[in-house]
Amino acid sequence: MNNLESLETTLTLPSPCVVFKPNWPGSSNVNLWVKRDDAIHDVISGNKWRKLQNVLNSFSQSRIVSFGGAYSNHLHALGFACSQLGIPMTALVRGHQSATPSPMLQDLTNWHVDIEFVDRITYQQRDNKDYLETLRERFVDALIIPEGGSQLSAIQGIQTMMDEVHDKIHFDTIMAPVASGATLAGIVSALKPKQNALGVGVLKGEGYLESLVSQFLPSSNEQWNINHNFHFGGYAKVKPELLQFCETFNSLAPFKIEPVYSGKLFWALKDLLAQGFFADNANIVIVHTGGLQGAR
Ligand SMILES: *Cc1c(COP(=O)(O)O)cnc(C)c1O
């Protein structure tokens, strides 16, 4: 068994897909399930495992370089995986070193990940060809993974998640949070005829998020759209009522949510149910993409 195979034995896969029965107005008119990708692993949870799986499988270089903020679930999942697999890693982190590093950065340090802070202007270059070329010259023989792990191979990992859902449920609608769009793109690319996907934008990005998703999709697929009413002011922005919602939810439900991704997703679900947005008896799957480490 190689290192990756032994890491995979510690993952809960396929992840559970469980019936969800909240006592929210409108919820008795539909059938709800939650795809529990948050249950895959405590650290490499959710869509970040799905997005990294194929990259790690075909990894042949001598180092991994990637990007993220100080609370990035992607860097956290990747850092843990690299430490388990003995892969040297450099994390290019947006912002400045702080006297009190985030729990995520502390973990990276414990896992012997090299952390380099980059200012906001440089960070904005993260997808720029010339900037990437300078990184390739500095980190010879390194694999450079984009922010959030979002690249074409990530889409295939999300399709694996969809295979697991299709095996269990004939759904009408599937819901997921949207930030870099790769997760929603992977979901949409695995839909069957008559199914649709509803993304919930977790940042202010009407138009922008749609363009991120469609860049991964082959043609003008019309089985999806993104709701922009639940970003609460922007990425990682919260309001007291959202925090209260997450707290109440976490005290009642058999799984936990956090305010950056899943909290906004379940809030959106609750709101749409109350509005009678879904058809009667619709079968709806909510993808819990994980990310609870970011809430620390
Ligand atoms: C990164 C992340 C997302 C966003 O996924 P994208 O593919 O970037 O849209 C959603 N949920 C969690 C928990 C995440 O960590």
CA radius of gyration is: 19 Å
Q: In which range does the helix fraction lie?
A: 25-40%
Bin the strand percentage.
Answer: 15-25%
Strand sequence of the main sheet, in spatial order?
Answer: 1-2-10-7-8-9
Give the topology string: H per helix, E per strand: HEEHEHEHEHHEHEHEHEHHE
Mean pLDDT: 96
Tell the overall outline: globular
| Counted beta strands | 10
Q: Structural class, from secondary structure content?
A: alpha/beta
Keywords:
11 helices; binds pyridoxal-5'-phosphate; globular; 4-stranded parallel sheet; alpha/beta; 10 strands; 6-stranded mixed sheet; 296 residues
Describe this structure in words.
It is a single chain. The protein has 11 helices and 10 strands. The model has no long low-confidence stretch (mean pLDDT 96). With 296 residues, it is of the alpha/beta class. The two termini are 34 Å apart. The longest helix is centred in the middle third of the chain and has 17 residues, at 152-168. Bound molecules: pyridoxal-5'-phosphate.
